[in-house]
Description:
This protein is of the alpha/beta class. The protein has helices at residues 20-27, 43-53, 67-72, 74-95, 127-141, 160-169, 187-199, 216-226, 255-261, 268-278, 282-287; strands at 12-15, 31-33, 57-60, 98-104, 145-149, 152-153, 174-177, 181-182, 185-186, 204-207, 214-215, 233-236. The strands form four sheets. A six-stranded parallel sheet has the order 2-1-3-4-5-10, sandwiched between helices. A two-stranded parallel ribbon has the order 6-9. It has a two-stranded parallel ribbon with strand order 7-12. Helix 1 (20-27) links the parallel strand 1 (12-15) and strand 2 (31-33). The model is unreliable at 1-8 and 280-288 (pLDDT under 50).
Amino acid sequence: MGEMGWVAPMPLIVTGAAGLVGSALTRAGLVGLDRQALDITDADAIERMMDEHRPDAIVNAAAQAGVDRADREPELTRRINAEAVGFLASACARHGVRLVHLSTDYVLDYPAEDRLKESLRPNPRSMYAQTKYEGEQLALEHGAVVARLQWVFHPGAKGFFNHALRQMAAGETVRLVTDQVGCPTPASLLAPVLIEMARGGPTGLFHLATQGEATAWEWIETGAKALGVTFRAEAALRKDFQGAHRPARSCLDSGKLNKAWGLELPDWRSALQTVGASSDRIGHGVAR
């Protein structure tokens, strides 16, 4: 085909590019738009972005992810986690753009369930969880893909995982919960799966997490060993801490996604070892 017949591929875009998942997707090649580049609470700004970038698909990783902050700033949290998702999903539907919206395991609270399936009725028990659930519904109403994630981390970046290891590396003892269970999931392993979801396939609600399960204690203990940080911790219970409600047990079942795309994340321990081995001296990065 001659040069005149060639059409450049349209980009895949990720919003919230400064966050853990957004950063991982940007490193994987997506066009990253942080809050300064795109305020998703501004419907007009979304339209301008559509005209400028003409995306084929968007992964929405933008969120107000502070669980405790959500209780202090409910209006801001709802504006970002719910209302803005409606703006973005509506614009994607009008422009024929595929949307993959990221949500959270916190919308489900079933401590007696071994693995949480998409068929469970949401029962959010915090302002953060409630607004994320509202965002899910707005995205699904406009034909988007919703991917629930959990316990996302990236060695050397921000977040609970690195905060705990930095404290330990500085010689401090960290209080770690032994009665809260989840699936620690590296952002770098999420990125290729989310890209495949953005490129095509079914729409609807899907869970995406590693296999196995861990308490916060087990997660950080394993991470410290993998990254060469001396483990210094004191056992605690969730009730010992103030703040918004967190599910006691929340392990997502990713079977539906595996069947749809033929993709599966490994056990959380193997996943953590993989990202630790492939990182550039993360242990030293954590210590800074």
